[in-house]
Design goal:
By secondary structure, this protein is an alpha/beta fold. It has one domain (3-225): HUPs (Rossmann fold), CATH 3.40.50. It has helices at 54-70, 84-93, 112-126, 145-153, 206-214, 222-225, 257-266; strands spanning 3-10, 20-25, 27-29, 37-38, 41-42, 50-52, 73-80, 98-103, 130-134, 156-167, 170-177, 180-186, 190-194, 217-220. Strands 1-12-11-10-13-9-2-7-8-14 form a ten-stranded mixed sheet, sandwiched between helices. A hairpin with a 2-residue loop joins strand 10 (156-167) and strand 11. The longest helix is centred in the first third of the chain and has 17 residues, at 54-70. The two termini are 28 Å apart.
Length: 271
């Protein structure tokens, strides 16, 4: 894949000395958790394990690397019910400096624009002008949060970032495009959404976990942030599990070769 090192300069003047990075994280059902539908809704009470959405983990890792290399401060922000605070403490356990929880009991009651408004208000409340988040959440795969927050902040937005660095002139982000690898230079205010990166995700040690338990969480709701969340224009009508796959078939012996080839060609459509 060619490396198209294009020098796009985006944004306003960047101070280049101190960076306050807000990382948006979503606490979602873990990829190993069994999901059940009760009535027409996912039964969240039956979800055995929750975790930070994987792409958000890469965003957090990038911010923590910036903390180490450039002295950035890192604030983790989440929006959701009380269980979401566990995701914040997981972020603190690996190095997040400050934690912000925007309390929303039922995320399905808000459309994406309302969610983005809450997150943008929370970011602005921290004073951060640089925002990192995953390119999409594991539970919805919508990919609208980063661009939506950027729009509300009047900020530049770079999506699908796989690498980021900083110097006195601003940020430099690498992302993959259909034409190759594109390097973009930009300055604050800006929002970067992260794809999977080559960085190894750090895991908390015992000391980090214990310190995270004591870290204060700055809690807000829509009213305290001055955001009107009434009148969502899109609402989830129902949830449904995916259709069950047909049971597998087993064939033994050379006499079944023709049948196997026929099924692979006509049913599985792989030949």
């Amino acid at each position: 894949m060619p490396n198209l090192d294009r020098g796009h300069s985006i944004g306003q003047d960047y101070p280049g000395v101190e960076m306050d990075i807000a990382v948006l994280i979503k606490y979602v059902p873990d990829s190993t958790a069994k999901i059940t539908v009760s009535g027409d809704r996912v039964n969240e009470s039956a979800v055995s394990k929750w975790s930070i959405s994987p792409f958000d983990e890469y965003a957090l890792e990038a911010a923590l690397s910036m903390k180490e290399s450039a002295g950035a401060s890192v604030t983790a922000i989440t929006c959701g019910p009380s269980r979401s605070e566990k995701g914040l403490r997981d972020a603190a356990a690996v190095g997040a400096d400050a934690l912000v929880h925007v309390a929303v009991d039922d995320l399905t009651s808000l459309d994406s624009t309302k969610m983005q408004a809450l997150l943008a208000a929370a970011v602005q409340n921290t004073g951060a002008s640089i925002v990192f988040c995953g390119k999409q959440a594991a539970d919805t795969n919508a990919g609208s949060t980063g661009p939506g927050v950027a729009e509300l902040m009047g900020a530049a937005c770079i999506t699908g970032v796989t690498e980021v660095g900083a110097d006195d002139s601003g940020l430099s982000a690498l992302r993959t495009t259909s034409g190759g690898a594109e390097r973009v230079t930009l300055s604050a205010p800006c929002v970067l959404t992260f794809d999977k990166t080559e960085s190894e995700l750090r895991r908390p040690n015992v000391k980090g976990i214990m310190m995270a338990k004591k870290k204060a969480i700055d809690s807000h709701d829509a009213a305290s942030l001055g955001v009107d969340v009434s009148g969502s224009t899109a609402n989830i009508a129902s949830h449904a599990p995916p259709a069950e796959k047909a049971p597998g078939q087993m064939f033994e012996g050379a006499s079944n070769v023709d049948d196997v080839v026929q099924k692979l060609r006509n049913e599985a459509k792989v030949l």
